[in-house]
């Protein structure tokens, strides 16, 4: 899932707003106790001022780099750290900023996953290819009437084609990558620890995808949203063309 232009604009607006919040918050943190600092030591106001100036500069540079990555889709310096920062620290701020301008949380989460994906793709762009890819799927993509047990043994699938698992196995065979189906966050973490990939392509709903991206840091996760024609958690669908396109870009260099 890449960012479309309306999401790029939204992300730039939210990043600018979040940057302003942070600057004001850091400024207040400095100004409010400023006079008290001098009583502790005459040099302390200068040291504190210098430290806050560094913090404000760092957050300004981080926001600018993220905007460049969002707008141009290019690799930027410190992209791994930026992924970390945006997933752990910036997302709550983006959600608050979104609320202020009337943007629903789900829309912000969508755009956030898009930004994360841009950073992941950009980090593999300069001739670097992932050596070990894990396709991580939620169990709700398996047909609810299918009695085959897939957890830990996705190969148990009889490839009848009534749900996306059969085609995912074809994709797995075509690229020689790992495919796993997880019934929840704990199992997903265990699969990641056991398979030790250097890139995860994960399919899930907004909430699970965002928490998965946060939980697996610093591992890069390319997130793809599932489709829910029958409502959440039942017979969900996977945008297979998008998975194929992502793998072709990353592994075939197309
Ligand atoms: S493809 Fe068929 S056998 Fe495989 S999981 Fe789906 S429904 Fe079950």
What report would you give on this structure?
This protein has 254 residues and is of the alpha/beta class. The chain folds into two domains: 5-123, no CATH class; 133-252, Rossmann fold (3-Layer(aba) Sandwich), CATH 3.40.50. Helix content is 59%, strand content 9%. The protein has nine helices and four strands. The protein has helices spanning 5-31, 34-40, 44-72, 79-100, 105-123, 165-175, 185-195, 206-215, 240-252, and strands at residues 133-138, 178-182, 199-204, 221-225. It has a four-stranded parallel sheet with strand order 2-1-3-4, sandwiched between helices. Helix 1 crosses helix 4, helix 1 (5-31) crosses helix 5 (105-123) and helix 5 (105-123) packs across helix 8 (206-215). The structure holds iron/sulfur cluster. Iron/sulfur cluster (SF4) is lined by residues 142-143, 146, 148, 157-163, 165-166. Iron/sulfur cluster is lined by residues 142-143, 146, 148, 157-163, 165-166.
């Amino acid at each position: 899932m890449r960012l479309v232009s309306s999401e790029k604009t939204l992300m730039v607006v939210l990043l600018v707003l979040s940057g302003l919040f942070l600057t004001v918050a850091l400024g207040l943190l400095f100004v409010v106790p400023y006079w008290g600092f001098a009583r502790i030591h005459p040099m302390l106001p200068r040291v504190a001022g210098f430290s806050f100036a560094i913090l404000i500069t760092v957050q300004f540079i981080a926001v600018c780099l993220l905007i460049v990555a969002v707008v141009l889709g290019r690799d930027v310096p410190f992209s791994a750290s930026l992924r970390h920062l945006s997933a752990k620290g910036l997302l709550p701020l983006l959600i608050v900023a979104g609320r202020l301008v009337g943007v629903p949380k789900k829309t912000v989460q969508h755009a956030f996953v898009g930004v994360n994906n841009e950073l992941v793709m950009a980090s593999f762009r300069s001739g670097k290819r992932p050596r070990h890819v894990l396709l991580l799927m939620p169990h709700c993509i398996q047909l609810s009437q299918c009695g085959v047990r897939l957890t830990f043994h996705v190969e148990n699938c009889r490839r009848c084609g009534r749900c996306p698992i059969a085609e995912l196995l074809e994709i797995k065979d075509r690229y020689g990558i790992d495919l796993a189906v997880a019934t929840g966050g704990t199992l997903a973490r265990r699969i990641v620890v056991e398979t030790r990939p250097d890139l995860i392509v994960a399919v899930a709903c907004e909430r699970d995808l965002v928490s998965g991206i946060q939980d697996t840091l610093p591992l890069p996760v390319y997130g793809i949203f599932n489709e829910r024609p029958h409502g959440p958690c039942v017979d969900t669908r996977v945008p297979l063309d998008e998975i194929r396109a992502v793998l072709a870009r990353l592994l075939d260099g197309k």
